[in-house]
Structure formats: C-alpha cells, structure tokens
Amino acid sequence: MAYVIEARGVSKDFGSGEASVAALRGINLHVTRNEMLAIMGPSGSGKSTLLHVLAGIEPPTQGQILFEGQDLALCTDRERTLLRRRQIGFIFQSFNLLPTVTAEENVSLPLLLDGVKAAEARRRAREVLEMVEMSHRRAHLPGKLSGGEQQRVAIARALVIQPSVLLADEPTGSLDSVNGQRVMELLRRVADERRQTILLITHDAAVADRAGRILHLRDGCLEPDGQPNAPSGDSRHVEPEAD
Amino acid sequence: MVSWRFLWSGIHQRPGRALLTLFSVAIGVATTLAVSVSISTTRQAFQEMYQTLSGRAALEVRTASGKDFDVRLLATIGETPGVKAAVPLLQRHTVLYFRSQRTRLILLGILPEKEQLVRDYVFEQGGAFPRGSEVLLAAELARSLEVQRGDNVALLTRSGRRDFRVSGLLAPKGAAAFQGGAVVFLPLDRAQRSFRATNRISTVSLVLEEGVPEEQVIRDLTGRLPPGFAVAPPATRTELARETLFSSEQGLNMAAALSLVAAAFIITNSLFMNLSERRRQLSTLRTIGATRGQVFGLVACEGLLLGLAGTLLGILAGIGGAALLTRVMESVFQTRLPYFLISPQPVLKAALLGPGLSLVAVLLPAWTATHVFPLEGMRPVPAEAAVGKGRWVTVLALVLMAGGALGSLALYREILAPSATPAIVAAALVGMSLLIPHFLAAVVWLLSRALEWTSSATAFLACRQILRQRNRSSLTAGVLFVAIVMSVGMGNSVLNSTQDVQKWVNRALIGDFVIRGTVMYDLTTGESPTLPDGVLAQVAAVPGVLTVEPWTFASTRSDGQLVMVVGRSFPAGAPLSLDLIQGEPEEVRQRLSAGEAVISTVIARRMEKHVGDTITLATESGSESLRIAGTCDDYIMGGTVIYVHEDIADQRLGLRGVNALLVRVRAEQRTEIAATLRGLCQQNGLLLHSIAELAQTINNLMAGVNAALWSMLVVGFVVAAFGLVNTLSMNVLEQTRELGLLRMVGMTRGQVGAYVLHQAAVIGLVGLVPGIAVGELVAYIINRVSEPVVGHPIDFSARPEVMVGCLVFGLLLSIAAACLPAARASRLLIGEAIQYE
C-alpha cells in the first residue's frame, strides 16, 4: 500500500488542566500516492491543526504520523526540517511569500536552502514559474503581484522541490472567486499532469469538489464520507483507495 | 492617565530593548562624568596643595624665577608696615628611605616659633616641633610606610643620605595635608645645612595686620625688595601640571564624546523601532482623537524617561569610574591624589547631558510619529515609507561634515582652542554616519556579490533584510562606524605619538645610564631631588666611564611663560643629546658654551622665536637675555624646555645642584660598570636606569593613560553592540511570521541562526570598513592639530595592527551581539510563528 502519509489514532490537545482544548481526537487517515484529497470542515474544526501535525510542525499529543513509512516522532528536528524542504510542499492561505525577494527568488528559496547552486536554482525556478504561467512576473516583488498571482508563485515554490506531497491550507481562502477557480484549476492540472499527491483543507464545498476524495472534519473528529458525526472520542477509519 | 499607561506599556512590552537603551545612555553619561571628575580632581588637588601650604597667609614673597633667595631679606619684609608676621620656608624635593622602601616627598624647612602663625599643625603623636635632626611626618604617610614615632628614617640631601629621627606624627590637617601628606618637616637651619642652602629660603608667607589692604602691602614691599621678586597672594603654581594634564584630558574627552554620540544613535534607533511596532496603536490613538502634539509628547516622554533613568544610573557609575580614573592619574603623575573630589559642576553637566541628549535623539522619531495618519496606520506599510526620505537629514549631515572640516582647519591654525577638538570630531562623525543610508545599498550589494559564491541563502536573505530596514540598519552601522573611527583614529594617533616620544628618547638621551633621585619630576614645579654633591665625582671615577654629564633642572619664567631651564655640560667628544631641528650639532655646542641657548619647538612656536633672536629668563637678580643658537623637539615638561650650558646656568641663572647624571661607558665593560654604578646608587639612595629602562619607564607612564583611553574606546564598542542587539532583536520580531515560513520550507534552526548572524556581520562590515578609512583620516588630523601643542609635526604612519585589530574586534563583537537574537530566532515555534501578526 503506497501511503504517502498515514495518521494512526492522532490526537492533539492545546493547553493543560481545565484550560485544555482537544483540537484533534483519534484521527485515522491515509493519503494515497497520486491522489488529491480534500478535508472539509467549518471554522474551528481543527483543519489547520491537522495539516500542521501531518507536516510534522506540531507533534501530536497521542498517536503516530508516518511519512513514507517513517515515524515522524522518531525523527530529529533537523530530519523533519529536511523532510519539509525536500518532500513536502506547503501552500498557505495567505501565500506567505517573502516580501523582500522577487517571485523567482521566492521560488528558488527551498533549493538554495538545500545547497543547490544559485544558477541551477534559478533555472529550475523558471521552469516551474513557466508551468504556473508566471514567467512574465518573475522579477517582481510580491507586493507588486495580485492575490492570485502570489498564490501561483506560492504553488510554484511548493512544486520546485518535486515534493512527495503538496499540503494546501485553504489555498483559495484569500482569493476572489475568479482567482480561486484559476488556482484550483492549476492544482487540478498539477495533480493530473504530474500525478502530484495533494492534500488540501478547505471550508468551501466548491473547492473540495475538485478533489478525488473528500473527508469531513468536525470538532476534531473525521467523519466517514456521507456519514453523520461519530461519538466523540471514537476513531474513524477511512478506507484507502486501491492503487 | 491613559497616556502614562500607554507610555509604561510601551517600555514594559520590550524590557530588553528599554534596558539596552537605558544602559547606552548610562554609559555615555558615566564616561563623561568620570572624565570630568577625575580631571577636575587632579587639577583641584594640585591647586589645593599650595592653598593648604599657604594656610592663613594673605600674601607670599618669592622670586619671579622661583629660585631661593637670601634669608637676610626677611628682616626687610617683616618690617614692612601692615605685616604682622613674616614666616620663612625652605622647600626641597627629597626621597625618604625606611627599611627597603623609598618615597618621594616635599621637604619643608620651617621656623617652629613662627610656623603656627601661618599654618596649623595638629599632632597625632608627639606635641613638639622638631629640633636638630628631628623630623615630623604626616601620620597617614607614616602608617603606609610602617614608620613609628621614634624611628629613624633617611632623607636624600646634597650631602647624601642622612638619618633623622621621627619626633612626631601629624594629623592630615593644615600643613600636613599638603601634597596629600607626602611631606616632611624639619628645622629650617638643619634643612639649609643638609641641602647646602645656607642663608637661603624659598618663600616668605605674610600674615597681615587686621584691616590692612593687601594692595598697600604689595606696593610697599615691592618698593623695598630688589628687582626679580614677586609679592602676591599665594599662587597655585599649577601651570606646568595643567600643560601635562592637557593631552590626557583631550584624549579622554574625545572618548567620552564618542560614547555620547553612540548613546544618541541608540536612543533614536530604539524609538524608531518602538514606533514601527506600535504604528497601529498610535494610529488608533489618532483615530479616537489624540492630537499630533499629544502623540509627539508620548513618544518624546518615552525617550526622556529612558534618558532620565539612564542619567541616574550613569551618575552612579560615573562616580565609580571617576575613582578608577583618578587612580590612573595618580600613577601617571606620580603623586598622591585624594580619592576623588566631586564638585557640583561635573555632576550638573552630566545630569543635564543625559536628558539633553535624549531630547535631541527623540526629536525625529517623535516628529515621525505625529505623521502617522489614523487609517494609514492600520495598514501594513513598509517601515522605510513610515520614516520618509529625510532630505533634510542629508543636508544636516553635509553641514556637520563641513563644520568638522572647517573646525579642524581652525584648530590647526590655532583659531580655535584645542579643547574644541572633541566637539568638532563628534560633529564630523555624526555627519558622516547620517550619510550611511546613501551608500548602504551599494555596500550591501557588493557584499552580497562577494557572498554569492557561497550560494548561501541565509547571506542573501540577510542582505535583503538589511536593505528593507534601511534607516534602522544605518543607525546601527553608524554607531559601529563612530566606535571604529575613534578607536582607529585615537589608537593610531597614540601609537604615532608614543613612537615620536621614543624617537626623541633615542635622539635626546644618547648614553648608557641615567642616575637620579626619583622616577619623575614634580609636575607643579618641574623640580626633582638634588643629587648628593660627591656622586658626580664618584661616578666619573668608575673605570670604564667615558663621560658623566650633569643635568640641572629648574623652572622659571620667560616673558610670563613658565619654562623649564636645563643646565648641561655638553661634553666634547660625546653626542650632543638634543633632538635638534634647527642648527648643526657642533656649531650649536660651541654656541651653547659661548652662552647661548637652545629652545624647544613648543617655546619657539608659542613665543614666535627663531634662531638668532634673544630669549629673556627671570633670575633672582633680575632677568637675563640669551641668544638662541638652535631649536629642538622635546617632551620634558610638555616640551617647554630651554637648554643652556651648566656654567651659564650657575653663573647667570643661579641654578645650583645636580638633578640627574647622563653616563656613557665603554661598551665592552657595560655589565661590570652597571654593577658598580648600582652599588654606588644604592649607597646614596639613588635610582640607576639604563636608557632602555628609562624609555620603558616613560612608556609605562604613558601606558596608564593609554589604557584608560583604550578602555573607554572599548566601552564605545560595547555601546555599539547594545545597539546591534536591539536592532537584530527587532528584526527577528518583525520577521517572526517570515521565519516561521522559512522553517516551513525547510530552513533548519542552524540556518535561521546563521541568517541572523549574517545580518550582524553585514551591518558590522557596513559600519566598520569605511570606519577604518575615516579613522586613519582622523588620526592624521589629530596628528596635525597636535602640532601647536607639541611644537612639531608628529610623523604620521598608518598602523595595520590597529586597523586589523579594531576590525576583527568590531566584527567579533557584532557577531557576539547577534547570538541572543539568533538563538531566539532559531527557537521559534513554527506553528505560532506562521500565525503571528
């Protein structure tokens, strides 16, 4: 079974004692290679927390996260960092481009951090920018780009490392409907043409519909497709699709 | 009430930044106060020495030349109408020996029956004035030497070491407080015999009848006395000390000025950072109705509050610093000084300086804050736009630099007094620092190109961050710039001056050994103990000794200017031992023997004298005019020296006794002769130094002040480091979200730390590298403006060791300053950071 990411009984609590808040409860989740999976949920359901836990940014309070079969809890901080640098592409709702560097330099950044020579990094960045149709704006600072353009640059940055998985946190959340559609079309194209594994979280059903599979998150629990909420504390399994 | 809470919350929100700013002000105030107090303590101590000695005397009679005179004039003086008592005193420099210790003292020969009319003597032990071979000592001095009443001590006299019994110890009051207690009293007749000064006295102190005007007595007495006498209120006689103190004072004042400039930059930078952080709060205040004036007041008050707190702390630290610096002065001037004397003036100056400095530093940030419009403040705006273009800042910078250049010229031309040097240099440096934003981009671009080969993302990002916060980076680099300019400038200048002194020693002290009574002459009179009469013959008789040249020192006046006359024999066949500037050695030697004089370049410049002119010297029998045979560079007594032949010194100027011997020996017998001379000196209680040791002694004396100077320059760097910590911490805070992102895309903790360290290194290089070039220019300017003071131009040479040393130190300090912000940045939690606003 080619699971890129697997979560087993993952819970995440914030705070302690009486002030403790359970953001995730007993999550069981598989992300299969080459699939585009959407996780939907209302505001406060724990979507971003789930994404952070899957990316290895937040450690789970309970449970296990396996990335390409590797238990993240057994990795050092450096190993997790390298994982993010080389295998996980992250797309943020608010783009999060560095304002002081150009679009091309933003895209080159993960490569430069990995010690790739500047010229080679530039070449690869231009290739990806070409793919997201942002070559003509590569020398511009993010402040000079529209929201949609910035998000496309952000997608290019995530793709330049040829990641095992793209994690997208509300990729259209800060965009108008037209730009949002364009971004989703891009992601769909990336998923189809490059057979890129994508996990995106959203509260927008129209966005989620673009995915091959949809899961629902409510109050920190994953619901099976089309099933009503499970009793709190129970883990839910979602049957993985066969390769 | 709301605004005070807002003000306090601003300080409380960033306690680290507030503390660093406060410490910067404290350091600036402390260095200024420490320098002021230590210099004024030294000056006042010299002044009070003679005030203590003069006691209740309204007037004093002495010769214009400062030499002794005949005691038989005492009767004439005492019979003058209005004079109630005329009390004579013989004053000599001597050395006291007790067990293995030797101490330089002033010896006072007194008439016990008359002394108490003028001066107070408070006995701690014993109660009678000394008779015969008895002496009185100050109790404090006795305790320090472990001398008890009844012990025998030896004193260096013209007849050699002579034993005296300590008959009493005096409390540190009245006459015993003279020279900080480094004084010994013995009967006048005994002093006259011991120092071959039969019927001679140094001064007569006059106590007047009540109601008698001083001017009347002065008039009457001047008419009765022969020419060459002065009747006046007791003089301070500190002119010579002031000359020598001057150059130390200049250097220390310059270092203190540097600390103040650095503190001002840091206050400005801190307030700009606060402004950047709290733009939204300020714009909210404007939205709800705060006026521009209120916003101005809020920001200004914050700066003033930090300035006041820093001033208080600085005054406390400055008092401690003053105690330390006064000890340094003590070792430099080889004299006892009080712990320190705090007069209101330096404290008031410091108390006004701190807040004043803060007030100047807050003006621009406070003005900028008033231009935050209500809604505009709600939007994220690049920080540079918030500060504005600052064209007038550029104008100010150019004006300050022009002022510095003109001021330097005025100093060189002696239009301005040398005491203006620190202010002129500070103004020029501030001007140059304000221009840094204009070349920041170019320098950072060069550095980023230089770093490109490393393919270092962190270096490349660091350069971008620095340009993003141009004003903040410039102000921070500016402090480093000022620190290194002063360090390189003054360090280079000090080394060049030291080299010049060494060159003078090599040219002017050509011989093998020097024999004398004390290491250093007295800075108020220029005098030193006279050697026992037979020593010259004893030394000359040592086999292998080629020449023995006696040196006699005495201070006198020439057209009102205090000068040091040195009588020497200039033996034929021996080097002239003068650092001649004008005149050929052999011709000068002949003309000296014929009764002419060689004057120092300092005197030549000040009195506008040339070879062939005459110079007039005050003597006890009037004045003597000598033709000038040549000029020479010299460092004795601030360079105010006139050399004459010993016969002229004796016969025409009344200089008697020998203060030092310059000895030349056969090279192959040097070691044995040294041993013989050492034994001879020990027997007579004298000091023997080789010329190399003498040069080292001179270096050691200079080293005390140089060490204090370097310490203060290092303090300037420390203040700059504070600024750097502030700036980098702010950069990390502002970039919290971006740092979270960078961690998300794969930047390791180490790379985050390196990113911050790179910023420190680049800011450091922006400030340090041009600072080295400007520092060399400052060193050159200091050398040139020193010419009026030292009388000759000091050879300028660039000092690579100073440049490299300061650069390396500055860079290391910059990187050290980045450690805490770097550690904080690398420890940021990714999840929190990417949600930070």
What does this molecule look like?
The complex is a heterodimer of chains A (243) and B (837). Chain A has helices at residues 47-54, 77-86, 103-113, 118-131, 147-159, 177-193, 205-208; strands at 3-14, 21-32, 36-40, 62-67, 70-71, 88-91, 165-169, 197-202, 213-218, 221-223. Chain A has 243 residues and is an alpha/beta fold. In chain A, helix 3 runs parallel beside helix 5 (147-159). Helices cover 58% and strands 17% of the residues of chain B. In chain B, the strands form 3 sheets. In chain B, strands 13, 14, 15, 16, 17, 18, 19, 20, 21 and 22 form a 10-stranded mixed beta sheet that branches. In chain B, strands 3-4-9-6-8-7 form a 6-stranded mixed beta barrel. Chain B has a two-stranded antiparallel ribbon with strand order 2-10. The interface between A and B is medium-sized, with 31 and 25 residues.
Short descriptors:
heterodimer; A: 243 residues; alpha/beta; 6-stranded mixed sheet; 4-stranded antiparallel sheet; 7 helices; 10 strands; disordered C terminus; B: 837 residues; alpha+beta; 10-stranded mixed sheet; 6-stranded mixed barrel; 28 helices; elongated
